[in-house]
Structure formats: C-alpha cells, structure tokens
Amino acid sequence: MINTGKILIIIGSFILLIGLIITFSNHKFEWLGNMPLDFKYENKATKIYAPFGTMILISILLSIMINLISKWFK
Question: How many domains does one find in the chain?
Fold first, then answer.
C-alpha cells in the first residue's frame, strides 16, 4: 500500500533541495527563465511574460520524478 504522506514528504524534500541548489549556485541557472519558447513582450505600459519553454521542461522533470517515486513504492 502506498503511503501518501511519505510520498509528499519525499517530493517536498526534493523540491526544497532543488530550491537550495538554485539559490546558492551563484547564477548558474540564469538560462532557466530565458529558454527558446519563453515569450516576453515589453511596452511602455505593458509587460507580458509567459515561460512556455520553462513550463515544459519543469513538467517533463516532474513527470519523470513522480514516475520514479511511484515505481519505487510499488
């Protein structure tokens, strides 16, 4: 039986670890918000930012992580 609490703790710990790595990596992840599919538009009165490329990358990484964790707890 899969214990949902343990899975949430593992996922939360993983997200915390990634956040700490990004925070203390001295700007080595500047490319993360400037990927090819990220949309930026700036005008005098308007600023629009839609990080489509970053969202796709994060979605793929989270899908892989969730699949690995779910196989680990079977």
Answer: 1
Query: Structural domain of residue 49, as residue ranges?
Result: 4-72
Distance, CA of 70 to CA of 64 (rounded, Å): 10
Does the model's pTM come out above 0.70? Answer: no
Q: Are residues 48 and 38 in contact, defined by beta-carbon separation less than 8 angstroms?
A: no
**SS3 sequence of the chain:** CCCHHHHHHHHHHHHHHHHHHHHCCCCCCHHHHCCCCEEEEECCCCEEEEEHHHHHHHHHHHHHHHHHHHHHCC
Q: How far apart are CA 74 and CA 53, in angstroms?
A: 32
Q: How confident is the model over 17-66, as pLDDT tens digits?
A: 988 888 888 778 777 778 888 898 999 999 999 989 888 988 998 899 88
